[in-house]
Structures are given as structure tokens and as C-alpha cells.
Amino acid sequence: MKNFAYSRPETAEGAIHLISGQANSKFLGGGTNLVDLMREHIEQPDSVIDITGLHSQGIAELPDGGISIGAGVKNSAVANHPLVRTRYPLLSQAILFGASGQIRNMATTGGNLMQRTRCYYFYDGAARCNKRNPGAGCDAIGSFNRMHAILGASDHCIATHPSDMCVALAALDATVHVAGPSGERTIAFQEFHLLPGDTPHRETSLRPDELITAVHLPPLSFAQNSRYRKVRDRASYAFALVSVAAALETEGGTIRNVRLALGGVAHRPWRAYTAEAAMTGERATPQTFRRAADAELASARGYGHNDFKIELARRVIASVFSELSGAGGVQ
Amino acid sequence: VSVMQSVMETVARFLSDSPPDPLLQQHAYVGRSLDRVDADAKVRGEAHFTAEFKVAGLTYAVLVHGTIAKGSVSEIHTESAEKAPGVLVIITHRNMPRIKTPPIVDFNNIGKGFALSDLPIMQDTAVHWDGEPVAVVVADTLERAEYAASLVRVEYDVATPNVSFQGMKDEAVVPPNVLGEPSEIKIGDPDTAQREADAVVSHIYRAPRYNHNAIEPHATIAVWNDGQPAVFDSTQSVDLTAIHSPTSSISKRKTCGWSRPLSAAVSAARSACGITRRFARQRQR
Q1: pTM for this structure?
Q2: Looking at the predicted complex, does its ipTM rise above 0.85?
Q3: Disulfide engineering: A46 pairs with which of A24, A244, A309, B43, CB 3.0-4.6 Å?
Q4: C-beta separation of B277 from B284 below 8 A
Q5: pLDDT grade, residue B21 (50/70/90)?
Q6: In degrees rounded to 5, what are phi and psi of residue B257?
Q7: DSSP assignment, residue A204?
Q8: Residue B63 in contact with residue B79, Cβ under 8 Å?
């Protein structure tokens, strides 16, 4: 780790003022990813601005029936909050499938959105990586790529977004509230994380001087019939090979409303609009689910070691929806 | 059921009953419910791991890892790392003390010690595997040692590695034993049996890669009191660690260098990592 300046502002304005004034600065939340990356010399900020003293710690009910989660709220607090557990069970499940108890106690909501890929070539300073060193090339393509993307990847990067929580947020149509020198704005979750294209070092639409203040979840009554399923190499403390966040509402055996997002398959949490469209209005049968999964994965591409993910994703999607429809759905 | 187990069961069937060995009762831990000696401390979070022992004047060593799978080090640039704050010494193959090549696993001569690998450790310029340590940076704090290690620049002559299991099969040899057991056990005449069988199932079963994560491999503390080395380490085998510790080879002190204070230190470290103290106590006797 190289030397860096450290500050701990007490207001969001103070934090934004600090980051606007110093090039190569980073906000520090729980530090569960940033500090690792600094120790590996991947992130090398000149200045670290600790934002754990800001008043962005609460979870509150919104007038429209949704909820607001402060950017500083710890992952474990989100997962265990009664409003989250009762209204958005898939979000609680997703968080509890991630990392470990100790890490969830440290990791923040905003930090979870900002965490970076666990691609081993990104972490290996001796490997070529377009994220670390734009234009250098990508050693994951043509090498070991079991954990890598099958959707939306590019010739420049096949890394995946590692978050579980964000997969549920994508399914729930969350909005990200940010503040910067020129005021506040909201970013639709679908637009927050970027696909790699030819600029894989750009990972989010957050500007360098902007601070995440909160994540809002709109009301979604049928989210009560929802599930997060994570498939990985071991039952605990491993990143998803494929994960599925899904919610389903049926009426007389017909699919009224459906949400689906995939994790472990793309550079961002993958909202499966194609599959959703293929299911809506159809009979809630295993055939429908399989057809919808096929439609979503039609554009998937494997890179060798991760070819299995394509069929795995299809099966997990079909399986989760069969469970959700078997559970009756929200009538 | 392993072949060994089947054989032992067969042997046991034909043995006449005799009174059980009294020594068996005296030391019969197998099958008994025993509390770990450090259970309470561990549950309370008070058990000390190796890295937590307080030693005056502690310095920190950080490894610089090679970045090629095969080849040799052509140049190591340590100048800027040497000038970094807090750096005490940088060890490379150029100034690393020479280590005697240890014998490979030999359960028949356990007292002489053995190693699981005879790959040299920074003895010359050769690089055998990706990630092999090529330098060690010692500084007064861990952070300063890590930073200085990042300044070491290594140049290589790169050779082509063979990293395919299949590709290495031609070079493979059958080891004389596997952890003291014969590497091949043949009962009856399997070739004939297979040839004459009504049906033969032939299939290759592949196991996924499993990694045994040893406890606390990143921490070992070595202390020299009046030239006498003491080592804190989390290890399953105090004796073998003592025989093979580089401290004994560097100081040219053989196994006798591992005296009572050392055993006490190792015993403390062992209880820290949760292995019963019984063996360490035996060592102290």
C-alpha cells in the first residue's frame, strides 16, 4: 500500500467538497473491497475520504410505500430490516448469500454498488487487464475464464460484477440517489452499472465527484413472492457462477407480472427484459419458463471454461420460476 | 471402504480373541468426547494466534513473488526499495543463505526430518512456478515492508512452461510410497478377472480441485535470545518444524538448538492454533 492522505468529513457537502478538490481520491465506506485493492496496489488513491461519519445510515419507509436505504447502511442491517424482509425478501436473501457475517457487518450499501470485479487477471498485477491498464489487452480471453461473463461482454473485457445485492436491486427497479457539486440527481439502477464495451475501466455512470447518498426501492407488491438463488462452487463464501433474482405474480395460472435479473453472467447485474417479455401474459408452466430462459440466453456467448454457464443459467431460471409458481404466486 | 480397511477386517476375523492391550485403555482417546484445551479461550476470542504474540523489536518480512511460470531471474532491481522508509534488508538469491537440499518424504527416517518438496528457496536464479518468491523485504512495519516490496522490479529470461497435467504424464513416475503406504496395492489377479468378466465398466472419474487451507500460513515469528532461536508457528508437527526450520540451518545449529524455551514457545503457538497440547508436553519432558 502506498502512502495516502486521509480525511473524515461529517457532512455530505464536506465529502463532495473534498473529492472535488483532490484528483485521484476515493470514498471509503466499509473498506471491504477498496482496502483489499489498495493492498494489492490495484487502487492507488492519493487521498482517501472516509464517509462512515456521514448521516446516511437509516432505512425509512417512503410515502409511496417504497423504502429508502441510506448509502452508509451496513449490508447486514439491510438484510435484517423488517421492511426489507417482508416487502423485498429477495433482497434480504441476496445479501445473506454474499460474503460472510463479518464482511456484511462492515460493507455498506453504497460500497456494494461500487465494488469491483473479482476477475483473477484484474487482481494479478502481472497479467494484462484493460480495466487496470486501458489498452493493455485482456488475459481472461483465451485463458482460465470459468467465472467470466456470458452476456454483454466485449473483446476488451469479460469480467463479471460480483455483487449479489445488486442483482436483487436490478430486479426491483431501484434508483440510486447521488449528490455532486452541482446538486442531486437520481440514476435508474439499470443505467448505474455499465457494460464494458471498449472502456472497461469505466464501470458506473457515477461521476468522479459524486457521492451516493441513498438507494430507493419503489413499491412492488408481488415482490413478496420472490426468490434469490445463487449457484456457486461451494455452499458458502464464494461468488456466484450464476444467480437469479426473481419475482412472480400469477392470476388463474397466467403470468401477470414478472421480474428477473441474473448475477455472475455479465459486467453488470443483468436485468432480463427479454425473458420477462416472453413470460408476461403466458401460462405459468415449465415450458414457458424454459422458453423465456432460452430467449434471454439466445445472445449468450461462452469463452471456453465458462460455456457451462449458458445452460446453467437457463436451468436455474426455469427452476426458480417453477418454485415461485408452485408457491402459488400472488393471486 | 479402503482396500487397507478390508484387509484389516479380514485379518481381524481370523484372529483369536485375546484380552485388550492395557496400554490401549491408558491412552484411549479414540472415541472419547474430549474438550479441546483451548476451547474456552477460542470461544471467548482470547486464544492467541501466532501473529498475535507480542515480541519486542518485531520486524516484518514481505515476499516479492515471481510473475512467470518458468525461466530465470536475469536482474533484480532493489535500489529504490532499499531507499524506502523503514527498510532493513532485502533478501534475494544473491544474498540468501544456502540451504541444504532436504530429503523428500521418508517415513522410515522421520527423526532425520524430511520435506514435502525439494524445490530450492531463492538459492539461484531459476524460477519454477508462477508466484514463486524471488525476494523478501524486511522493514520496521508491515505497511512499509509491503510498500518497499512493491518497488522491487524483476526482469526474467522467460522459458515455456508445461502447465498441462496430461502434457506431463509422460514424465510421471510411480513414487516408492504415498505417505508411507505402498503406491500400488494388488490383490488377486485383476487383469485376468477383467478379461473374463461378463461386463466391464470403464470410466475416468474427475474430482474438482480442492485446496487445503492451512491455518495461519502467513505468520511465523522467529526470535533470537542470546543467539538461541525460538519460533512461534502454527504447525501440526512441532518436531519436523524444529528439525527443518531455516533458523537451525542458518545458524548451523542442528536439532539440538531446539531447547526447552523453544518448545515452550512452540507449545504456546500450538495451543493457539487449537491442536492439543499433549504432544508439545511430551516434547518438553
Answers
A1: 0.80
A2: no
A3: A24
A4: no
A5: low
A6: -65, -15
A7: B
A8: no
